[in-house]
Amino acid sequence: MKFVLASYGTRGDIEPSVVVARELQRRGHDVVMAVPPDLISFTESAGLETVSYGLDTKTWLDVYRNFWTFFFHTFWKVREIRTMWRQMWELSDECWAQMNTTLMSAAQGADVLFAGQSYQEPAANVAEYHDIPLVTLHHIPMRPNGQLVTILPSRLGRAAMKAFDWVSWRLNKKVEDAQRRELRLPKASSPSPQRIAERRSLEIQGYDSVCFPGLATEWAKWNGLRPFVGSLTMAMTQEADDEVASWIAGGTPPIFFGFGSMPVESPSAALEMIGSACAELGERALIGAGWSDFGGAQLPEHVKVVGAVNYATVFPACRAVVHHGGSGTTAASLRAGVPTLILSMDANQTLWGGQVKKLKVGTTRRFSTTTRESLVADLRRILVSDYVDRARELAAGMTKPGESAVAAADAMERFAQARCSA
């Protein structure tokens, strides 16, 4: 069978789709990936045929990050927020149009079209046009449910998510209407998530159900169309792994700090804050640089800065993990069985932070409001035995990476075969 997998975002957003694509290809299927131009080298190095999909990730990432930082920090500056909002949506509309062009070509003759968490709407329209089954992947439960919005009762949380879907549809209505006209499809009369569900699409949940107690029961009515497969990760070895393992072995287990593809505005200030907080606590700090430039700084003896590392081997050797709350990094820290502190930078990361706090395996706050004093207090809180024990208990109930890849591919094959024989 031919599977076309479209995925947009940073490397952490793309990696779960790559995991599924490689497993499908290993089984002998014809697989094509569609990813942002600046991540084509990543997917091609994984042995996958790849086409360009949307704009470069870095084109919009700064605008996206700045909007959310500004929104949470200076929400009263309406004019500036409105300008950033317009810039963000102009880039989004341009991305949408390019995605439509790419998928119209790539999906010809495909048996299944797969869409990662971002920009499922244009992919769903193309699948409808070609009359082929759609599979979506979610790194967090994005369909209306009563378990995600931790600050609200279940009924209100579910209603808030439905309202969010409706607002998102209205915001994207102009560009979606244009796409559907081009495809000669009727104008949509409901939000895309509702239409995706009505088409009986397969919606793979790329996280563990134990991370959202009660969700599997709530979604049992979907009769297997929303399977929980666990987090999908390549767990790739990195050049720095041996060096990092040696450094860790040379002292007490460190606390890992990393912000992935969300660069911090002032690396020097972040470095000073982390170093000072860990010194007060008598802890060592291992900092994953990610997209932030920590080069040239004088490092105290208890601090080490590294590039990319294999989270699957490094995190279990640490006392705790502090990060931005990306879905992949969160899954890795939870799988490691160590306490987690999420210093979020956008809305989705805030949701993961709330869930980690609800599970009592860590805590959270906005990165923009974090100080040396708050960092010390948060770390003291999560390093106690209660948090450590709960983190280990949660990890014991999570799937292994290899199991997740097999489960996702199995679900897609069953779905495709059922649709082809229907």
TrEMBL record:
This is Glycosyltransferase GtfA. Residues 3-86 form the Glycosyltransferase family 28 N-terminal domain. InterPro entries: EryCIII-like_C, Glycosyltransferase_28, GlycoTrans_28_N, UDP_glucos_trans. GO terms for biological process: carbohydrate metabolic process; vancomycin biosynthetic process. GO terms for molecular function: hexosyltransferase activity; UDP-glycosyltransferase activity. Residues 297-398 form the Erythromycin biosynthesis protein CIII-like C-terminal domain.
